[in-house]
């Protein structure tokens, strides 16, 4: 890729995406950004989280993947910034603006490059002070299809040959090397489980909306966490919780799941008296399994003593983790569970 820049008043062009992975549709957008401004900022979304079948590549891997497709001249004009998922549109857009301002502090005229492919492109409306450069989609390629080919083919060479028309050659080579890493086999299995899970609900008359309840329990500067024993998110840290049963209140579901997964030896009535707050987490993309709305219940045991816990049911491990350590564990959490903790415990600095 080598784009010749046109004369323009735009100081910086911004391209936002997850790029999981970078494909030929993204190439068109990046080329347009490169001819629109002398400096291009690529915002790599969904950063700082644990790998999963929807977000298999770290932001550093995505930056390397994209950089490999650029000429040396173009590479010198591109900056990469990593932004986490806040599951809150105002926080997320503020974080993007802050990251772009730090990458291009002297930019007076900023343009946002993108195309409106579907409802997932609504984010382009969150930057009213930036010029919009709308690019028509020339190729019906999306990263979901690329990941499906990459994870579902029984023969990797066949999979990569199918991807020839979907991704740049440099990305194809990157994927071939990346598939030799231990992450690949685990994500192939996670992808298979999620496909099976969604297939089981295809006969439902309406797309299902699942309801779960979680328990955030703190005691003496620690929070009670589990490691997930199965897919999705096998081995990742999570707050205890699970699906609400048919005849169950939300609070009772949170307390039941807490007892089943950690064997925390406190009566339900005792925990009810220690309930401090309840928050709903309903972002449509918070779970790979489908639309899942969770109700997180925050309990403060108000004691320096740590009650004994033992993993059971869906958990492979249960432990009290010092709250001061959580910020450094962000990339080890299942789905949005770090952000659930963050909302109660203020673990990360909010963008200004």
TrEMBL record:
Domain Nudix hydrolase: start-end pairs: 200-344
Record key words, sorted: Nucleotidyltransferase, Transferase
Gene3D superfamilies in the cross-refs: HUPs, Nucleoside Triphosphate Pyrophosphohydrolase
Keyword Thylakoid part of the UniProt annotation: no
Tree of life domain: Bacteria
GO MF assignments: nucleotidyltransferase activity
Keyword Glycoprotein: no
SUPFAM superfamilies: Nucleotidylyl transferase (SSF52374), Nudix (SSF55811)
Pfam short name (any one): NUDIX
InterPro entries according to UniProt: Cyt_trans-like (IPR004821), NUDIX_hydrolase-like_dom_sf (IPR015797), NUDIX_hydrolase_dom (IPR000086), Rossmann-like_a/b/a_fold (IPR014729)
Transmembrane segments: none
NCBIfam families the record matches: cyt_tran_rel (TIGR00125)
Name of the protein described by the UniProt record: Cytidyltransferase
């Amino acid at each position: 890729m080598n784009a010749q820049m046109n004369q323009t008043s735009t100081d910086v062009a911004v391209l936002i995406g997850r790029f999981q992975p970078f494909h030929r549709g993204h190439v068109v957008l990046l080329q347009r950004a490169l001819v629109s401004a002398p400096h291009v900022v690529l915002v790599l979304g969904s950063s700082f989280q644990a790998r999963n079948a929807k977000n298999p590549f770290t932001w550093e891997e995505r930056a390397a993947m994209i950089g490999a497709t650029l000429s040396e001249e173009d590479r010198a004009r591109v900056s990469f910034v990593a932004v986490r998922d806040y599951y809150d549109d105002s926080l997320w857009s503020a974080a993007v603006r802050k990251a772009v301002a730090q990458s291009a502090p002297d930019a007076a005229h900023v343009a946002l490059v993108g195309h409106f492919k579907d409802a997932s492109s609504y984010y382009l409306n969150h930057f009213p002070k930036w010029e919009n450069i709308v690019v028509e989609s020339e190729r019906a390629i999306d990263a979901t299809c690329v990941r499906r080919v990459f994870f579902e083919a029984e023969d990797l060479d066949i999979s990569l040959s199918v991807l020839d028309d979907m991704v740049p050659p440099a990305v194809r080579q990157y994927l071939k090397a990346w598939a030799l890493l231990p992450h690949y086999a685990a994500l192939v299995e996670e992808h298979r489980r999620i496909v099976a899970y969604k297939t089981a609900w295809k006969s439902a008359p309406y797309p299902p909306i699942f309801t779960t309840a979680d328990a955030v329990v703190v005691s003496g500067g620690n929070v009670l966490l589990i490691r997930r024993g199965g897919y999705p998110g096998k081995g990742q840290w999570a707050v205890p919780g699970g699906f609400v049963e048919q005849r169950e209140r939300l609070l009772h579901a949170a307390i039941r799941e807490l007892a089943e997964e950690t064997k925390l030896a406190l009566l339900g009535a005792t925990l009810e008296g220690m309930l401090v707050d309840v928050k709903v987490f309903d972002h449509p993309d918070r779970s790979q399994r489908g639309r899942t709305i969770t109700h997180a219940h925050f309990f403060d045991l108000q004691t320096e003593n740590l009650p004994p816990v033992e993993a059971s049911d869906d958990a492979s491990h249960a432990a009290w983790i010092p709250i001061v350590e959580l910020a450094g564990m962000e990339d080890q959490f299942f789905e949005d569970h770090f952000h659930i903790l963050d909302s109660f415990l203020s673990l990360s600095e909010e963008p200004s």
